[in-house]
Amino acid sequence: MRLVVVSAGLSVPSSTRLLADRLAAAVQRQASAPVDVEVVEVRDLAVEIAHNLTNGFPGKKLAAAQDAVAGADGLIVVTPVFSASYSGLFKSFFDVLDKEALVGKPVLIAATGGTGRHSLVLEHALRPLFAYLRAVVVPTGVYAASEDWGAEGLAERIERAAQELAALMPLAVRREGPAVVPFADQLAALQ
Q1: pLDDT tens across 105-132, in order?
Q2: Rounded CA gap, 65 and 97, in Å?
Q3: Which UniProt keywords are given for this protein, alphabetically ordered (predicted)?
Q4: Nearest Cα residue to 141 out of 169, 180, 182, 111
Q5: Any idea of the CA torsion for 183, 186, 188, 191, to the nearest 10 degrees?
Q6: What pTM value is reported for the model?
Q7: Residue 123, number of CB atoms within 10 A of its CB
Q8: Domains along the chain?
Q9: Fewer CB within 10 A of the terminal residue: the chain, N end or C end?
Q10: 34 preceded by cis ω (within 30°)?
């Protein structure tokens, strides 16, 4: 099975990436079959995302990330919280994704922040975004505030969410990227 982790952390090291790695490792432990993990660092795609938003065409790295997401059996998406919501870069990545790429795909939502006051970001921002994209969002989302690291409650939430995602991944609807029809063939079909 293929698991793609979309991490929108901006710093190195990043608590967002740390949470993403812990979630991915838990899914690998919980899965009934081997799980190959691919990590997409949105920070590394920022320029190509901006170009795609303005010209409509993804660069090579962005196209590879889009294909990985479309072909995954499951996704883990993790964002830092900015102004009580997901980061703009995180949202922009999903804005340039094919609108059908996440249909029926199991997704585990997670976020990191400096305080527990932002924990509702999972329910008021992330869950609606992925419901709109017609993904299957697992019931347990994982939020990690600064004080949660090393706490038993975080480890329990990680394991529960990972178990839910691992159970859904074998049932995933896998979609490959859109088929590209050469322009000459499109013209010929019109005649």
Answers
A1: 999 999 999 888 888 899 999 999 999 9
A2: 9
A3: Flavoprotein, FMN, Oxidoreductase
A4: 111
A5: -140
A6: 0.87
A7: 12
A8: 2-190 (3.40.50.360)
A9: C
A10: no
